[in-house]
User: Fold this.
Amino acid sequence: MEIALDTLRAVVTDAPLTSTPRLALDIPQLIVGEFTDRAGFERLLPGTFGSREWLGSETDDLLFDDTSRELVAVGLYLPPASAPAEAGIGLSAEPRAVRGGLRAQEKRDVALAQTTVLHCDPEARELVCLRDPGVVGVGAPLDARVGIAPGLALLVRAGEAVGWSLTEPARYLTTGYADADTAPPAPATGLRLAECLALITRPLIDEVMDQEPSAWHRLRTTERALREQGDRGEDPVRAAALHQLVARLIEDYENW
Assistant:
């Protein structure tokens, strides 16, 4: 299979990334690669090509090895908005994700635009991020899902990567570039993750900033639930990461 990543074309190989993804809402980014901080990511630049000319712009980070042209690192930014319910976003069981890496057909840099909307079901079984909400939904099935790392798949339609999905995203929750907890996530963590994703994206984040009472009720309810989950010692590392996020929202916008 061959897919388009903006102007760069890549062939799907049989060697997906083996690094466990890290979902850091404080960045907010999904990170995959053999590095432990942003400086480590940037140390890969001399021996790679891809999105390095656009670091800091509104593009996702993709790095390919100079010699093999194989994908070696990924940084996918979370979009700023949640898709409206009427968009009908939600991936069906088909097509199933096929594990595979990517090999660029030529050595050239690329500006792959970040996704613009996300969808996460209330239990956070799957996080879907799309560049255009109109390309996936009722009557717009995907052609393929390429599993480029554990739990992470590129979504392909009409030969083009149109977004990405992360199965059981709570499993990969962390802060910064730290490795995620290896223990399975608690069911409550998935519920709180879905709530937090709504709280940090439009339209709800705008209502938080405007101090709309209903939005602040949701924010404080989530904060209390996470604090109580931490007090119970239930999935404490992930609960602490999410609590830190909502506590920061309260601190930043309480007296906005």
